[in-house]
Amino acid sequence: MYETLHGRGGADGDPWDVIVIGGGTAGLSGALTLARARRRVLVVDAGEPRNAPADGVHMYLGREGTPPRELLAAGRAELAGYGGEVREGRAVTAVRDGERFRVELDDGSALHAARLLVTTGLTDELPDVPGLAECWGRDVLHCPYCHGWEVRDQPIGVLAVGDAALAVHQALLWRQWSADVTLFLHTSGVEPDEDGWEKLAARGVAVVDGEVTRLAVADGRLDGVVLASGRTVPVRGLAVGTRLTARSGVLEGLGLRPADLLMGAYAVGTRIPADPVTGATDVPGVWVAGNVTNLTEQVIGSAAAGVRAGAAINMDLIEAEVREAVAVRRQDGAAGPGPDPAAEADPADRPAASAAAAGTAPAALGSATAAEGNGGR
């Protein structure tokens, strides 16, 4: 059996087949895919999942409502069952080191791998309003599909940030979960256009002018929105369009830099551009998956993206190993694509290429199979 090109990973300095940077659902799913493909894979994780404040993960079939850290713990256990490893720590930078990559950690150590999968996620940058951070992930929300059910039929506020069209879109979206929705224009500096006003009025969405100075919080839960005028508007959930910033600093040493993601003319955040199916970046040997490249991906979608990236990485390694095997075979003196007569003891043991040349390969085998099938009818 042909030995893996890249060897077994282990101690610092020894190469891994793949290092996965980031241990969320995208990273663990990619690592699990690779481990089941018999790859030596290491996950480096700083333990800072974006959804850590949330009570549970939603729309993940079969795991509905599972606490985020419980889901990740289960994923780590599954990975370990196939020989994958997880190392606690923060990857600071990644650079090319000959034919491999070197990943430097915040403790000063360095690891090496043939391929990289980066699944570091994103950071939600909240507006500077006192109380937002305290309630983030519980009563201060960003996605109705993730959190809408939990605040259904309650008074919901939407905080406008930066773009009127986006604010109207959010208000109309959240209206599906409650008939009591208020759009706070805050300091966005823009107002809905005539079409936006009409849509808001038609759906019964209230619009409040004036700066939001803070949130009213009681016992750690949202109680209302306080305006500069002193007025408090009661709400139990507040939707905020955060700026979504890819955690991509580790990739700068490889020349990969984030690009703006636009909704209309408004930049909602930054992402690492990559192939939308495989996650391959412009740097050969480097893949990304999850929110670092797709800012609006749900948890289950990030897991699927990790699986696709893992499969693509495994195929890339296979192709490299085949190329090396062919080069070694030719270097050893094999003449062309045919068999080595000196090593061939039994025609039945011929490689596929020589069997095809002799006219005895898959076509003839297929005919025999068909004949057997006809005889069995």
Compile the SSE list and pairings.
Layout: E1 15-21, H1 25-36, E2 41-45, H2 68-81, E3 85-88, E4 91-97, E5 100-105, E6 110-118, E7 122-125, H3 132-135, E8 140-141, H4 144-147, E9 156-159, H5 164-174, E10 181-184, H6 194-202, E11 206-208, E12 212-218, E13 221-227, E14 232-234, E15 237-240, E16 243-246, E17 259-263, E18 266-271, E19 286-288, H7 299-331, H8 352-357, H9 362-375
Helix pairs in contact: 1-2, 1-7, 5-6
Beta-strand fraction estimate: 15-25%
Task: Give helix and strand order, one letter per element, not per position.
Answer: EHEHEEEEEHEHEHEHEEEEEEEEEHHH
Low-confidence stretches: 1-11, 355-377
Shape: elongated
Helical residue percent band? 25-40%
Q: What structural class should be given to the helix and strand makeup? A: alpha/beta
| Largest sheet, strands/sense/barrel | 7 strands, mixed
Rg value: 27 Å
Report, as a whole number of angstroms, the end-to-end distance: 39 Å
The helix count comes to 9
Mean pLDDT: 88
Total strands: the figure is: 19
What this model shows, in words?
It contains nine helices and 19 strands. The protein has 377 residues and is α/β, with parallel strands linked by helices. The strands form four sheets. Strands 1, 2, 3, 4, 5, 6 and 19 form a seven-stranded mixed sheet that branches. The protein has a five-stranded parallel sheet with strand order 8-15-9-10-11. Strand 13 (221-227) and strand 14 (232-234) form a beta hairpin. Helix 1 (25-36) packs parallel to helix 2 (68-81). The protein is elongated. The two termini are 39 Å apart. The relative contact order is 0.14. Residues 1-11 and 355-377 have low confidence and may be disordered.
